[in-house]
Structures are given as C-alpha cells and as structure tokens.
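User: I'm preparing a small set of examples for a lab meeting where we compare how different chains pack in three dimensions. I only have the primary sequence for this one, and I'd like the structure in token form so I can line it up with the others. Please keep the answer compact; I'll paste it straight into my notes.
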Amino acid sequence: MKLTNTWIHGDCLKELKKLDAESVDMIMTSPPYHNLRVYSNDPSDLSNCESYEEYYYLLGLVIEECTRVLKPGGTLLAGVDHYIN
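Assistant: Understood. Below is the structure token output for the 85-residue chain.
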C-alpha cells in the first residue's frame, strides 16, 4: 500500500467542499480561537467572528465537512489549547 501525504492550505470550507465524501484518512487542523488572535481581514476567517454564536456555528460547518470527507474510521486531529486567566 502506498501512502500519500497531501497538504492543503486555504479556506477550509472552500477546500473541503472540493473533496469527495469518505476520501480522506486523516485531517489535522488548528482552528482559530475566538477573539484571541485575528489572522486576516477576510470576513470568512473564523478569527473575525463578531460573536461566540457565529464562531460556533461556522466551526460546526467545518466539523460537518470534515466528517463528510473522512473515511469510516478516519481521524480528525484538532490542536486546541485551554487558557486560564
């Protein structure tokens, strides 16, 4: 069996929609944190959400697309940190 690594850099919702269902073995991501760092001025960037509700809604869309493209038994790795002040 030949393994292939493909890195895709771009708007995750746009890029995930280009992939066939159940075609990916593993997804590795580090979603932006609401209100902690702004990565761009692009309105579709999750770091620009005005409210937690909007952020969680859009993050939910991303997770739905990840679920759609993952093969059965596939893996989703999401890097998250917990900040305590």
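A couple of notes for your slides: The longest helix spans residues 52-69. Residues 25 and 73 are 8 Å apart (CA to CA).

User: Perfect, thanks.
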